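call fold target=Receptor-like kinase CHRK1
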Amino acid sequence: MSSNRLFSFLFLLVLPFSSSSDTTSWIKSGFWYAGSVFPTPEIPTMYTHLHVAFAHINTSNFEVFINNSDEPYISTFTKTVKQNNPSVITLLSIWGGSDESPDFFAMTSEFSRRKSFITSSIKTARLYGFQGLDLNGVYPNTAANMTNMRTFIEEWRTTINSESNNSLILTMGAYYSPMLDQSMKYPVETIVRNFDWVHLRSYDYYLPSKNNVTRAHSALYDPSSTRNTDYGIKEWIKNGLPANKIVIGLAYHGYAWTLVNPNHNMVGSPARGPAITSDGSSINYRDIKGYMKSDGAILVYNSTYVVNYVTNGPLWIGYDDVEAIRTKVSYAKDKGLRGFAAFQIPNDDVDWELSKAGYIIILCKSLL
């Protein structure tokens, strides 16, 4: 059977997301942001792992806490999603902070603070039925922070392993590249020893609020820059993170730019700031599909960057469509990576178009 005919056959076969023993060892994970308007029982059963985002760090006692507004969602999440998919594994993702993660590194600087975080994180996971914990948004920027981060990671894993029921998965969300600047990088050797896998933020490389040209914000390749997923993954592997501990990030969102000249509408065209959203915030795939239906919209797939973009007058939106998701999942399989992590699942369209695209590629490569 030819590849094209096999692909067509599989497309019809897997619409209900039936399970396959050939694909169970691959991580097919996704994020669900607490507070999203989203019916959690309807999450497609093709996902093997679901991360809920985010718990936070209390800067007074350094315990892990959940915002009051998020508690109703997070406390019932595991029970709800397991109604349709009992085998799914849920993880609680903890946000380490922003602007070089001040909350996280304040916590890691003292033993008592680390102990408070570690104890409360495990307690919170057990309380709400999560089977794993995830650390996200941490960017060490000094030698002292790096040393403290190593110590914390070792203590976190040791504490989990010392429990009688030491079954918690431990994962980490990291920058697309291990190199944070010319002199600093993640403590790769410590990460390898203590985390089950690392899911990369392989998107948001460029933003309309910061960049005055249109760019592929989640480029798999970029011949003009090192800000691309292929480069980052190669750097992680070169620095010691095995491919089978790397989970590629998939973006179910895009960004809109305002073109300076509507006739110059390719990747790298001059722009004068955000379009659609005044602050340049992301636009989910479902809404992008709505803009694609506008009269006069031009849809383009650029295979150099592996990105879709749509233009309509001065409007330019860069995002990943079905074809881009298929290419990235195929890339991850070919490179021997551990799986993919979609951010975030509620951004998919009502027919789960992007979710299906990734799953079908996995089945195709398992059967070819």
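return ok
The chain has one domain: 3-251+322-367. Confidence is low (pLDDT under 50) at residues 1-24.
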